[in-house]
Amino acid sequence: MSATQYTTKHAVDELVDSYQRVPMLVIATHPDRSRIGERAALIDLHNEGNDYLSRVKPEFAKNGNAGRALLDEFISRSPIIFQSEPDGRIKLRAHSTKTTVTVVGRGVQDEYVLHERELDNGVVIGLNHRIVLLLKLLPLHDSAVDDNDVLFGISSDIRAIRQRVEQLASMSLPVMIRGAAGVGKQQAAYAIHQASERRDKPFISVNLAAIHDAVAEAELFGSERDGNRQLGYFEQANGGTIVLEDIEDASVNVHRLLHTVLQSGSVVPVGTEDTQPINCRIMLTSHKDPGDIEENSTLSMLIEKLSAYQLFIPPLTERREDIGLLFDYFVREQWQKLYGNRAYDAKISGELMSQLMTFHWPGNVRQLRNVARQVVIDSRDQEQLHLDPQLLSMLRPTSVNGHWEEETHVQRRPNSVSRNELLETLESCRFELQATGKKLGISRASVYQLIQRFEGVRTAQDLSEEEIKQSYEKNRSDTEKMMWDLQVSQIGLRRRLKSLGYDI
Ligand SMILES: Nc1ncnc2c1ncn2[C@@H]1O[C@H](COP(=O)(O)OP(=O)(O)OP(=O)(O)O)[C@@H](O)[C@H]1O
């Protein structure tokens, strides 16, 4: 092990619990693009001391690689000081450095005081309009997952999702993927498909809201008319994966049709009497909070049947550390599409990245990708990529409409909940997510997100069949005892037992 690795990871692990969140600097943009996403933990600051940021300090690292400092010749060797204040705030002191420092796009002359809440959301720090860093409280622990060329991101959330994608790929369980519009639900479904043995078979995504009732049966199940046979979506997905998008936006008729398919495990194309068994993996996406779905409706029954496993993808603003990497990827992708083989030579300026990091992004990753396309078009033949003033005025962080955290009982940032606090609250609420969310002052969706993030915290859907079997036998089918034994909610457990055919 090299000395640098020692400083950036292992020495740190001995000082703080690896699930603990510590102030972390993440590179959002750097003249050397390969450095985007590298992180450096400010452990002295965490331990109420001072930390320093300069050309030569601290060391940043990614994916367990050896660390290295920013090493940019335009950044001064004399440091910016991060000084912890007795009241939990952090003072950023730029007295002695020649580096031009901006915080959230505004110049800092001497000092700038950061509040704890700002650190929760992430504070955007610009250096000489060349390098942009995000200072944010992030967990030291990161699941060791390789970069993946389908689901980009360095946040703990995306890494945890990538780990689950790997696990899910070898199973054929239905998967429900939740999250707001544009967060990457379909992309996650595609990642599972690509990682599975079905990867060479079709991946069919169905926009259920666009299916008209009059033709729904034919579109879903296929049809035959005057000897002309049209395959339905389920048949088209034969051997592969079908993704039923935004299930709650489909009509009641479509819900009923899907329910019939699941009951029978087969489809009968319109105009025929042939029964065709369905042979594809089913995934669902939903942008609604589960609490908003009417109980005992066909939709809720459908979701229950198809939610053997759930993934939750958080909004982009809760994982701002992903923005730099995603934007860089989208810019290169768009460049290639628009200008073919012309070498990619435009630079992402510090100013542009600071702007991108502070927007609200109600349309999440899809919106970021659209902005990347427009930026590439608008910056053709320019040395640096820039935002057109008209686009800039549309992107200002004004509205937070549509944000998942807009529930009335939401009082705090989910990121401020530690693993221990989550475990204790889950236990005191009998592992009920809704009640846990209320007690913690966060949404149910955020509780789900945290469970996904912390290793060893689970829902009933995460239990293996073997574990359930053993606990069922040990506790003589008593679900109250099984709940304490397995540390998951009784309702979820009963659902799981029912779906596995246990007698309860
Ligand atoms: N982590 C990611 N890595 C790479 N590309 C991503 C990622 N997340 C999303 N994208 C891209 O962003 C766009 C939106 O993603 P996607 O369609 O999966 O979102 P969605 O949540 O299914 O949206 P909607 O709810 O509106 O259907 C797509 O172009 C997708 O390829």
UniProtKB/TrEMBL annotation:
Record keyword Transcription regulation present: yes
Alphabetically ordered keywords of this record: ATP-binding, Nucleotide-binding, Transcription, Transcription regulation
ATP-binding found in the keyword field: yes
Protein name, entry field: Sigma-54-dependent Fis family transcriptional regulator
Stored PROSITE patterns: SIGMA54_INTERACT_3, SIGMA54_INTERACT_4
Highest taxon in the source lineage: Bacteria
InterPro entries: AAA_lid_NorR, P-loop_NTPase, Sigma_54_int, Sigma_54_int_dom_CS
Alphabetical GO biological process terms: regulation of DNA-templated transcription
